[in-house]
Design goal:
- The strands form 3 sheets. Strands 1, 2, 6, 7, 10, 15, 16, 17 and 19 form a 9-stranded antiparallel beta sheet that branches. The chain has a 7-stranded antiparallel beta sheet with strand order 3-9-18-11-12-13-14, covered by helices on one side. The chain has a 3-stranded mixed beta sheet with strand order 4-5-8.
- The protein is mainly β.
- The protein has one domain: Jelly Rolls, CATH 2.60.120.
């Protein structure tokens, strides 16, 4: 399956977007406190009931150690501006809008909602920027409209796309029962990809490990993508972004959402 180039183009920051990321953030309606999935892990590391039965963290399974940067969403309101640049811009491929009000943190998880008019959201991490590292994110969606695609990706700090690459290590397509990995490389936007069947309406841990030896994707601690070609390596540091992108297809769009329980970044030995 080939990745749609247009989605990545829409991710590329513009001067206006870069300025917008410095602005304050807006609030959106709260996630229901009665939602049994809306629980997370505190910044102190105390265990709470966010983990679904049988799910596994790659960091725990492979002994990645303590995170060097993290976001646990243990506060309420908008995503914290010191940690996130929330998009206020046109949407994917100029379809719809990305607005700060699409996001809300309820003390346990961050939720982004895409409405029936294509107003949705995305945000870019201001922490954990690095060349080589490990990123892991806990995410779930609803049985979303096929036009809304959730994506966890690493974007080049340089903003020079496609030459400096892109790593989409968990991207939903039209089917909420699948997840995709796309590695973009070269100024020609060449790509390597993989697809797995998974119920994205359940909590899962999605991770990527980027070392000088290659790039590995993990789903609940199980490797499912690997590329060891040195020509496919991003040339510079990258950072996490989280997006719910709208792909209108001419049919009626229904309200959809994705939730993020935490984002954790780990070092890799490079010596």
């Amino acid at each position: 399956m080939k990745h749609r180039t247009a989605r990545a183009l829409a991710t590329r920051p513009t001067a206006a977007l870069a300025a917008a990321l410095l602005l304050g953030l807006s609030l959106v309606g709260a996630v229901r406190a009665t939602d049994p999935a809306a629980v997370g892990t505190s910044a102190t590391g105390s265990a709470v009931a966010v983990a679904a039965a049988g799910s596994t963290s790659a960091a725990k399974k492979f002994g990645w150690g303590r995170p060097v940067a993290r976001e646990e969403f243990n506060y309420t309101g908008a995503p914290r501006s010191r940690k996130w640049g929330v998009y206020d811009s046109p949407g994917h491929d100029d379809n719809g809008l990305r607005r700060p009000r699409a996001w809300h943190v309820n003390g346990h998880v961050a939720r982004v909602v895409g409405n029936s008019r294509g107003v949705t959201g995305g945000m870019s991490a201001r922490f954990g920027n690095r060349r080589y590292g490990r990123w892991e994110v806990r995410m779930k969606t609803n049985q979303r409209d096929s036009e809304y695609h959730p994506v966890l990706l690493l974007w080049p700090d340089s903003g020079d796309w496609p030459c400096d690459g892109e790593i989409d290590y968990a991207e939903g397509g039209s089917d909420w029962r699948e997840i995709h990995f796309f590695l973009h490389y070269s100024c020609d936007n060449s790509q390597e990809s993989e697809t797995r069947k998974v119920d994205t309406t359940k909590w899962h841990n999605y991770a990527v490990e980027w070392t000088p030896d290659g790039i590995v994707g993990y789903l609940d601690g199980v490797p499912w993508f690997r590329d060891t070609d040195p020509e496919h390596q991003p040339p510079g540091p990258m950072h996490q972004t989280v997006q719910l992108d709208w792909f209108p297809d001419g049919t009626e769009t229904t309200r959809s959402w994705m939730k993020i329980a935490w984002v954790r970044v780990y070092d890799v030995p490079t010596g």
